[in-house]
Write a structure and sequence with these properties.
globular; binds cytidine-5'-monophosphate; alpha/beta; 8-stranded parallel beta barrel
Length: 239
């Protein structure tokens, strides 16, 4: 079966007000954008903002990157499962046992649950830092493959990684194992603080299932046009 593909807008805003001003621009759009709520917005506005965005009909990736002892993560995921979001995540570094516990906690009585994905190595961590500070004696590529395999062994649906790593993750874990990839830029736009970047079209070619796009849409002069361009490029729609 083909995985669902979509563009996820990273709503990296500090308040509900800023978020709603942004979302109002999309009123009347045929395609309701899939949105990512990260720590900044969630810690500022809590479950109320999640419910409000859900009420407006958007799918939500709640990007809270849980990492704790398995029992705590299981119980936290149980709370999050009641929020009716569509995707949540954990750090793969929390171990296979923690990821299994996360999935157990997230699964509702009727067997349904949001997609559950794992962060491998953050793209902000360099190989040198990983080896010198974390004493991980491997290449960053091998670490990402191992963490993805651990996530798969725990029954998770996929991993967050760079689009350039999609191919090796799929090679190691199979094509159905999802890759959710930030680090997206239009060819002509600024890289900001992202280093390893690709365009939406290239991310599609490399096998990404979901691309996470922040500033190229949120900081665009016309965010709706930027979103449409992203969707058209990523889903290869030639309108
Ligand atoms: O604005 P930009 O497109 O760079 O935003 C990318 C989003 O993806 C941000 O919310 C960032 O926190 C997130 N992210 C990332 N790299 C990772 C994991 C998450 O850029 N490895």
């Amino acid at each position: 079966m083909m995985n669902a593909k979509d563009v996820i807008i990273a709503c990296d805003f500090a308040s509900a007000e800023q978020t709603m001003t942004f979302l109002d621009k999309f009123e009347g759009e045929e395609r309701k954008p899939f949105l990512k709520i990260g720590m900044e917005l969630y810690y500022a506005e809590g479950n109320a903002i999640v419910r409000e965005i859900k009420r407006r009909g958007h799918k939500i990736f709640l990007d809270l990157k849980l990492h704790d002892i398995p029992n705590t993560v299981r119980k936290a995921m149980k709370v999050l499962s009641a929020l009716d979001v569509d995707m949540v995540n954990v750090h793969a570094a929390g171990t296979v046992e923690m990821m299994r516990a996360a999935k157990e906690g997230l699964t509702r009585e009727d067997g349904s649950r949001p997609l559950l994905i794992a962060v491998t190595q953050l793209t902000s961590t360099s190989e040198q830092t990983m080896q010198e500070e974390l004493l991980i004696n491997a290449t960053i590529g091998d670490t990402i493959i191992k963490y993805a395999q651990n996530a798969k062994a725990a029954g998770l649906d996929g991993v967050v990684c760079s689009p350039l790593e999609s191919t090796i993750v799929k090679g190691a874990c199979g094509n159905e194992f999802m890759t959710i990839t930030p680090g997206i830029r239009f060819a002509e736009s600024a890289a900001d603080d992202q280093v390893r970047i690709t365009s939406p079209a290239r991310a599609r070619q490399l096998g990404s299932d979901y691309i996470v796009v922040g500033r190229p849409i949120t900081a665009a002069e016309d965010p709706v046009a930027a979103y449409r361009k992203c969707v058209n490029e990523f889903l290869n729609i030639n309108k």
